[in-house]
Amino acid sequence: MSRESSAGTARSPTESGGNEPGENDRRAADPAVVGVAVVAAAYLTVFFQVTNVVGGTARTAGVVAVAGVGGVALARVVGERTALWLAGAVLVAGLSGYLLAIPESQRALFTVRSVALDVLALSTGLSVLRLALADVWVLAVAPVPTFLVGYFAGRGRHVAAASAGGGTLGFLVLTGDAGTEAAVAGVVGLALAVGLSTLSTPSRRRGHAGTFAVVVAAMVVASATVTVIPAGAAAPLGLDRGTATLESSLSGDDELAVVGTTRLSPEVRYTIESPVERNWHTGAYDTYTGDGWVRTGERSTLGDSLSGPPGSSESVTVSITAETESTALPAPWKAVSASTADGGAVRLDERGSLRLAEPLEPGEEATVESRVLDADPAALRNASADYPAAIEERYTQLPESTPDRVGERTDEITAAADADSPSERAAAVEAYLRSEYEYSLTVERPESDIADAFLFEMDAGYCVYFATTMAAMLRSQGIPTRMETGYTPGQQVGEDEYVVRGQNAHAWVSIYVPDHGWVAFDPTPSDPRDEARDARLAEARAGGAENVDTEESTPNQTLEVGPSTGTPDPTDGDTASSADGNDSTDPETGGSNVTNGTEENSSVDISRLEGANAEGGGPSVVSGDTGDSGLLPTPSAETAMYWLLVVALGVAGARRTGFASRATRRIGPILPRRRRDPVADAERAFADLERLLAGPYRERRPGETPRSYVDTVRTLGADERVETVAAAYERAAYAGSITRDEADEARQAVRRLALERAPLIGRFVR
Questions:
Q1: Would strands 460-461 and 438-439 be described as parallel, antiparallel, or unpaired?
Q2: Quick check: helix, strand or coil at residue 640?
Q3: DSSP reduced 3-state for 495
Q4: Separate counts of helices (H) and strands (E) for the chain
Q5: Is 575 a residue whose pLDDT tops 50?
Q6: pLDDT of 332-368, one tens digit each?
Q7: HSE of 636 in the Cβ direction (CA atoms, 13 Å)?
Q8: Which of 27, 485, 537, 568 has its CA nearest to residue 285?
Q9: Which residues pair with 373 in a beta bridge?
Q10: Cα separation of 170 and 216, whole Å?
């Protein structure tokens, strides 16, 4: 290599310290920076949504700002290879710090295989919110792409900068944390960065502005139409996935998204034999996101029996027969052991909920032993508020954006009830929600925080709304509270036998009471649920629906039962209680949960929710299992905007590609047109003829007379009828007079020529 080339290479901006200051300033001001900023804002918004839930937004914002500014500053003095090594080192250091921040007991469970599976899970729908110490993880990861975005933007490498941000956003799309809006914003930003980088001069930007706008719109529509999230966390803007059943919305595994209008499924799920009537617990959630719930942590295989509640409890054995395929083990809280006939593995999560590794098939059985709370109500009222640190930290979490008025309203309610202890305050909130809000399955999902919106802007909802609101209210008081899901007892068909249907799916809350564990409260009003459930089941039976009954469940049986009234109450008898004990490894795997003690308070069947209106009227019977109200559905603003964009894109694309003009040439003469005076009709007929002939032959040239043009296309093979049209035009244009019959003949000649070129269309318009 020559000395000159070596020197030239050494001075290359890519390998040297950077560009000249003036060049950097010019490139930093390039319009493509707008696209880079949009991409960066999209992925940073997702990161801040996570920290809004788990805390640490201000800290993360500060570190990210330093990383971005540092990247821009180093763009002038550090080569790209060095910058990439530096970014990698920061990422490794950050993830190492995250690993060290995780409690040693959890870190001991890490293996190469488990870490690999977690990384795979993140890329296939595992939300970042499910990670232990998600705020620390964000703090470790977010600065790295921001540094690269700032660095490449500072060097004028806008496409590379946008790609760094786009790759990060793509990862967040795969985890399900980035929704449709963020994905669309990222696509638009990337398109802007790429497009404006190639259109660097004003003249080129003007010449290609229309084409570029169409490309951007196409990318937006594509990103909104094709869902790339394996877990399905984001739905295409224009696609209606239908109304989900309440049961399906409550069985979202590790993530529970609060939806709007829902419906009931009367199909039988289980036959349960139990000596006690309780809500059948299937799961619990610890992290409130503002628009739903997430349960963090991992599942492990259930080994020996778990410990029961720390206080007084009763041992019960429950037999569960699956009527449909299921991995859930619905049983009274707290389950301490479980087994299946084939000895299948049972999985345990950090909240003590059980789930089968392999599903039960219809007719197969499982057995669960539970320890059910048997505590003195006075003991619950007088229990200490000295919570274990891990319990208090995890179960008093609220998003940073939760409005202060949620806590203020809760203060007013508990003060009015003269409630002092956590159990008394929980009972006061429970009573307030039951008395002040109606029950209805037909609701519009709010865009803001669910608990705040339900408390201050809504007057009706179903169990998910009631339970979510109560949990947020109690957490604002520093009372550890979690969201519980499962089923109400169902239809009693024998002394100790219950038929549980999908419409029995339910949600409630439990608070942690030291020395007793998790005590259940149910804020959802019961009467309208009962009426709606009964009507839904009766309608399904009358319609001959399948799988809504077993041999034991007949229309003459009592439809539903509430939990036993024998459970002690922490106040004056209208709340139920249960206790939680800690197991040998983690205090959160213990606990007990039962429903409220009175039938009114605890008979919480979701089917009763069906059709109850906001005024508390009677149920509305739905047709089949569709939940249709008989009215035409009103499209959401998102859907309307999506289809408006699709139409606009179609029109713009048709114009840019020339399709619109070609279609006009071919179809325009076929369409019926209002008659004008003969001269105008003859002139229009010749104009249609010109457009019709331009495709197969050629366009009329500037200055070329109509006669000369027609003679030329005749030599190229045009039909002789073109001469009739030309003659009519000449008489109209030059002589100024033409008869009605001559004008009509010219119009018909053009229309017949057009129909011959479009025979399929001609079959419908002749």
A1: parallel
A2: helix
A3: coil
A4: 28, 19
A5: no
A6: 999 999 888 888 888 888 888 888 888 899 999 999 9
A7: 16
A8: 485
A9: 313
A10: 18
